Amino acid sequence: MKIGLVLKELHRSENDLAHELLQVSDRHKVDHEIFYVARDLAVWSQQHVRDIAAIGEHYGQKLDHEPEGEAGLAARVLEKGSEMVGRMSTPGLLLLRDLREVHMKAAGVSLDWEMLAQAAQGIKHRDLLAVTKRCHPDTLRQMRWANAKLKESSTQILVS
User: Fold this and answer.
1) Rounded distance between C-alpha atoms, residue 44 and residue 40, angstroms
2) Number of alpha carbons in the 13 Å side-chain half-sphere of residue 130
3) pLDDT per residue over 112-133, tens digit each?
4) Positions of the chain with pLDDT lower than 50, given as ranges
5) Are 51 and 14 in contact, with CB atoms under 8 Å apart?
6) Cβ atoms of 95 and 157 closer than 8 Å
7) What are the structural domains, with CATH classification, of the chain?
8) Residues 104, 112: Cα–Cα separation, whole Å
9) Dihedral sign, Cα of residue 159, residue 145, residue 74, residue 69
10) I need a surface site. Which of 80, 96, 100, 143 has the fewest CB within 10 A?
11) Contact 8, 89 (CB under 8 A)
């Protein structure tokens, strides 16, 4: 079975999504809604990381139960580049870019949850199906939040 490989990728992707949400929160501290909601949404992905690690053991994966705290060296270099670009452009454009990135990462995570749910149904693994049913709706909400904020902000940012 290749379910373990999907769990490993999902674990990495949920860590990445949580990290992205925390970065968005930090970059937009002045916008209290973005700051606090992005942090709350990151906590969901961090919990998903724990859930994936727990179920991953049943599929031959030894995954870290704790979400990644600090970004790796390569990610930090990319973040510095992003910060420099963000300083050169307007904060509004940076917000749109950040929301787009959150949406795209959440969409990828959502597809992984969907694949796992289909596999769990097919092989009748109730524990795995329960994890997908518990976590996937959170990911869909993360994606909808980013999309809604993007819709709400786009006209004003792009036209002004």
Assistant:
1) 7
2) 6
3) 999 999 999 999 999 999 999 9
4) 70, 72-74, 77, 85-86, 88
5) no
6) yes
7) 3-159 (1.20.1260)
8) 13
9) positive
10) 80
11) no
CB 128 within 8 A of CB 120: yes
Interaxial angle between packed helices 3-27 and 126-159, expressed in degrees from 0 to 180 and rounded to the nearest 10: 30
Using CA atoms, how far apart are residues 46 and 100, in angstroms rounded to an integer?
20
Distance of CA 71 to the CA centre of its chain: 14
Alpha-carbon distance 112 to 78, whole Å? 25
Q: Is 140 helix (H, G, I), strand (E, B) or coil?
A: helix
Q: CA 154, CA 138: separation in Å to the nearest integer?
A: 24
For residue 79, count other CB atoms closer than 10 A to its CB. Answer: 17
**Rounded distance between C-alpha atoms, residue 104 and residue 40, angstroms:** 18
Q: What pLDDT is recorded for position 79?
A: 55
**What percent helix, strand, coil does the chain show, rounded to 5?**
85, 0, 15
Structure tokens at 12: 């990495």
Q: Would you mind telling me the total number of residues written for the chain in this entry? A: 160
The per-residue pLDDT for 74 is: 44
CA distances from 95 to 8, 9, 17, 24, 39 (A): 30, 27, 16, 8, 15
Q: What's the pLDDT score for residue 58?
A: 94
